Amino acid sequence: MKRTAQLKLRGAIHSLGVRTWFMGVINVTPDSFYDGGRFLDPEQAVERGLELVEQGADILDIGGESSRPGSEAVPAEEEMRRVLPVLEGLRCRTDVFLSIDTTKREVARAALDAGADIINDISAFRFDPALLELAAAGGAAVVLMHMLGTPKTMQIAPAYDDVVGEVKSFLEERAAAARAAGVERERIVIDPGIGFGKRLSDNLALLNNLSEFEAAGYPVLVGPSRKSFLGALLGLPAEERLEGTLAASVLSVVRGAHILRVHDVLAVRRAVQTAEAVLAEVRHAG
Ligand code: HH2
Predict the structure, then answer these.
(1) Residue 79: domain span
(2) Ligand 1 — pocket residues by CB below 6 A?
């Protein structure tokens, strides 16, 4: 059963593990693997964010560049043009925590100025280490995610001897780099990066061994939502992977995840709430 972890957001320390937190996904892109093209209009993206908050999102993660396997990088100017109106629109209409999903310093800086609380970097700040100093100076929390190489190359024959051990060592090394750059321990979240340079068996092993990551001492975020490992398991397209997402999400919570990054906040929250009620019921003697 997962232990409580601490996360400092906007000055306050939050206890994670008491209940799961939900990070709702909004991709302001034409090409994201599931919601690509649906929220390109900033007003629609803001409305979607508010809907996810109604559904129970604690955090909204806004991205302006798809990281699906094989995708090309988007210039920083274009990424900013996509995400900034959405962050600004949400900031004045909701108090939930806002996260910017980016690997670029210009985008992260502008997002923090627009009121973002978290920098979610799928490269764990390898692509641009200067972002860590930016996070430290701005008091932002950081999500450090494991990925092999880049989105363009990550699914070209990924291989590990010990996927759990290797991903955990990588995340510990990146957490140490974040701390060396001045990011407070309570502002660091780690994520094994489901689907980012992983075979089906790697994804399953990571999900089944999330407790190993929890033992690293940082809150654990996991993003199984509608990903292609579910397609490989079930033989279904992204539109039909909700049930797989629910199963993976519930098991992630049982195995120790503190934060779930999902597209379907309402359905996942209901499934997780039910699982948490069962887990919380202690056995009565007699
Ligand atoms: N997954 C995606 C993007 N960002 N960030 C974290 N921390 N963890 C994840 O698992 C993760 C992430 C990919 O999903 P999505 O944003 O829906 O798709 P796309 O990259 O095509 O926009």
Answers:
(1) 4-285
(2) 25, 27, 29, 32-34, 63, 66-68, 101, 120, 122, 143, 145, 191, 193-194, 221, 223, 261
